[in-house]
Design goal:
The complex is a heterodimer of chains A (189) and B (522).
Chain A: H1 5-26, H2 29-32, H3 37-50, H4 52-55, H5 60-85, H6 95-110, H7 116-133, H8 138-149, H9 154-161, H10 165-188
Helix pairs in contact in A: 1-3, 1-5, 1-7, 3-5, 5-6, 7-10, 8-10, 9-10
Chain B: H1 10-21, H2 33-57, E1 68-76, E2 80-87, E3 92-99, H3 101-105, H4 109-128, E4 137-143, E5 146-152, E6 156-158, H5 159-165, H6 170-189, E7 202-205, E8 210-213, H7 219-227, H8 242-249, H9 253-259, H10 262-278, H11 289-298, H12 302-305, H13 313-322, H14 334-345, H15 350-353, H16 355-381, H17 386-395, H18 397-410, H19 415-442, H20 447-472, H21 477-491, H22 497-515
Antiparallel strand pairs in B: 1-2, 2-3, 3-5, 4-5, 6-7, 7-8
Helix pairs in contact in B: 6-10, 6-14, 8-9, 8-11, 10-13, 13-14, 16-17, 16-18, 16-22, 18-19, 19-20, 20-21, 21-22
Classes of the chains: A mainly alpha (189), B alpha+beta (522).
């Protein structure tokens, strides 16, 4: 069933924080000062608006997949551009890795041993979590991002954020509780 | 009895966090309500974050190998990731190349097993190749369905990094390529092709300054990944021979394997040499991978478009023969190419062997020539005895030959250059004597007339000398030759021929001393 234009526009807006979280998570910390995740997401949503006719046919899940793919191209373009402009920052950067991460993410989101409905449920929860992440205060968000999304250890996160391990543990704990609370609110809406 | 209203302090949280991280949280008690809540929140968020984390992590995690420990990533290519690892038994650090997990995942299971088999077969083949300029392969294996092989860890950097990061002399680049060409030629004799020669595959050992080529025989796999767009920017087609690029565009891997030959290796070596000298890729950077592939097939490459003035014409012509679009017009073997490069390296270069001569040119010979021009002019004006004029004319040869003699002892490996210089300047002396005798006969020893004619002749002889020198020495001598032919004509038009000759000669000396610089090895 086709959605109305308004419904799709609303859906696009709801996806904004999810996409920002994905972009922030996949961009390595070294790049973050030079590539702005929210700019890239803004650009991606603009492209979606230009293709709104095509997107009316899509439900939330395939719509998000479309957006992730558009985001991938924008991220890669931005990094490629950065690479030609500022050689030293991107010297050790492997563009192929960034591309691989996006491809791998798509594989992981689709493939699962569980039933399609469970996969869908899980992906919705992931989206809720990613959206809720953007409502956290910056230091909590960074801690959760580095620890759970980028897989760094407590010690590494404390080195990266330049605060003590205990302080990071506190940020993580409060961040996670906030996240669960926001997700709960989101679900009940 | 744990307190249900217990507030967790940051320090306690850090202990819990580490316990969760260890994957074995049993050591810490999770009995209070707060702690149970803590644990479930941790697990829930961690599980939801897993796909993104795995998307980033799975590519970086080193595999677990039985024979190796302490694996740390040092490089990655289209097909495999290279780790530095400690071999448990020998306690030596080796480089371990492991096939990327996503390389196999992208293919159908049948194709994946074929690729695995090919990887193993090729690395076994590579293990048989032994040469001082080829990275030796030690061990071949497979772990968790991922094939791997270990090889010597070369402490140094690749030719690609070396030329990008620092200015290294052309001599050094040519020497590296020449040594690599000898190694590849040896292996070609055993019927093994490299197929993927590029600056990234040539490693320079820092301690010995020895170039080594790696990834022998893995070309089919690596090329396949270059073309497989789903793997991303994995490799570069920049050094691929055009006939291979055409086959790749048509998407037929059998064609690619069939097109691979000695002459495609010759092409890749030529393109590699050019890239290392020009310090950039032969392909245009702003093009996408498929566009670059098409450019290679059509020859739309930098070395075909503009002549790089920084590269010597002799080298450009060697490269041109390597990268000819017609494989039949390239060097027949890599050995032929190596011979050409050896010849270039051994060419006589007076500027490297005659250090003192350059100084002498500025400090002694140039002022002397100027002075002798002035003296001859004055001696003619006061109608002095011809003996004095002859003395001044021939005096210039003194320091020239003296410096040759002095350098002959110290210069090492410069005999060819010496021989050429001796021949040229001895010839110059003979011609000067012959011309003077001839002019005396023709002008019936009328001194004014003799020297009016002598200087244009002498300039013409200088023209010939510079052309002769341009053959083996600095290419700029040709332009000096042209200049001296014009000077010869000018000298017939003036009454001040001796003085003008002296001025031009002094200028020429200074031009030579400043422009014909010795090559300094970085």
């Amino acid at each position: 069933m086709k959605r109305t234009q308004q419904q799709t526009e609303d859906s696009l807006d709801r996806h904004r924080p999810i996409l920002i979280s994905i972009a922030e998570a996949l961009l390595s910390p070294a790049l973050r000062g030079h590539v702005d995740a929210s700019d890239l997401v803004q650009q991606t949503l603009m492209e979606a608006h230009c293709n709104i006719e095509e997107l009316l046919k899509l439900d939330d899940s395939p719509l998000l997949a479309w957006l992730r793919s558009a985001l991938k191209h924008n991220v890669l373009d931005a990094v490629r551009h950065l690479r030609t402009a500022k050689k030293n920052i991107t010297r050790n950067l492997r563009l192929g890795d960034l591309h691989d991460s996006f491809v791998r993410l798509e594989q992981l989101l689709v493939a699962d041993d569980t039933s399609p409905s469970q996969v869908m449920q899980r992906n919705e929860d992931i989206s809720r979590m990613l959206a809720a992440l953007q409502t956290l205060p910056t230091n909590q968000r960074m801690a959760v991002m580095l620890k759970h999304l980028r897989g760094h250890t407590l010690r590494e996160v404390s080195e990266m954020l330049e605060v003590s391990e205990s302080a990071v543990a506190g940020l993580l704990h409060r961040g996670r509780q906030q996240l669960l609370l926001r997700m709960q609110e989101d679900r009940s809406e | 009895m744990p307190d249900d209203n217990e507030l967790l302090s940051d320090d306690e949280l850090a202990i819990l966090e580490r316990a969760m991280e260890s994957g074995d949280p049993l050591g810490v008690e999770f009995h209070s309500r707060k702690r149970v809540e803590y644990r479930s929140a941790f697990e829930l968020i961690d599980e939801l974050a897993a796909p993104i984390r795995m998307a980033i992590e799975s590519l970086d995690r080193p595999p677990v190998l039985e024979d190796y420990e302490e694996l740390t990533e040092i490089a990655r290519g289209g097909m495999g990731v290279v780790y530095r690892g400690l071999h448990k038994k020998t306690q030596r650090y080796d480089a371990v190349k492991v096939m990327r997990p996503d390389y196999l995942e992208g293919s159908a299971s049948e194709q994946a097993s074929l690729l695995r088999l090919q990887f193993l077969r090729e690395s076994q083949l590579a293990a048989k190749v032994a040469h001082e300029h080829i990275v030796p392969v030690y061990q071949v294996g497979e772990t968790d369905g991922r094939p791997w092989f270990s090889m010597q860890l070369v402490e140094g950097s690749s030719l690609f990094d070396l030329t990008r990061d620092s200015q290294i002399s052309h001599e050094r680049v040519v020497r590296y390529i020449e040594q690599i060409a000898r190694a590849i030629d040896t292996v070609h004799r055993y019927g093994i092709l490299h197929g993927d020669i590029k600056p990234q595959n040539i490693l320079i050992e820092t301690k010995t300054d020895r170039p080594l080529i790696s990834d022998f025989g893995l070309a089919d796999l690596d090329a396949a990944s270059t073309i497989r767009s789903d793997i991303g920017i994995a490799g570069t087609p920049a050094y691929m021979a055009p006939e291979l690029a055409s086959a790749a565009i048509n998407g037929r891997s059998e064609d690619m394997t069939a097109s691979r030959s000695i002459s495609s290796d010759v092409y890749s070596l030529g393109a590699t040499l050019w890239a290392a000298l020009a310090r950039c890729s032969p392909c245009y950077d702003d093009r996408t991978l498929p566009e670059q592939l098409a450019d290679v097939a059509k020859g739309n490459l930098k070395f075909n478009k503009k002549v790089d003035r920084k590269i010597e014409p002799a080298l450009l012509s060697i490269i041109g023969k390597c990268v000819d679009s017609n494989p039949e017009l390239r060097y027949l073997t890599v050995g032929e190419l190596a011979d050409e490069l050896t010849q270039w390296l051994d060419r006589p270069r007076w500027n490297q062997h005659f250090g003192t001569l350059r100084k002498l040119l500025c400090v002694v010979i140039a002022p002397m020539l100027l002075l002798s021009g002035l003296l001859v002019q004055s001696l003619l004006a006061i109608k002095a005895a011809e003996f004095w004029i002859l003395l001044v004319v021939f005096a210039g040869y003194g320091p020239l030959f003296a410096s040759f003699l002095a350098n002959q002892r110290s210069a090492h490996g410069a005999w060819q250059a010496h021989r050429e210089l001796w021949s040229i300047w001895a010839g110059h002396l003979c011609v000067t004597i012959a011309v003077l005798i001839a002019l005396h006969i023709l002008c019936q020893s009328e001194v004014d007339r003799v020297y009016e004619l002598f200087y244009p002749f002498w300039a013409a002889v200088a023209c010939q000398v510079f052309f002769a020198k341009s053959g083996s020495f600095w290419i700029g001598y040709r332009w000096l030759g042209v200049a001296w032919s014009l000077i010869a004509i000018c000298l017939t038009l003036t009454d001040w021929a001796p003085l003008m000759f002296g001025v031009f000669a002094a200028i020429t000396c200074i031009v030579i001393a400043t422009m014909d610089r010795p090559l300094v090895d970085a």
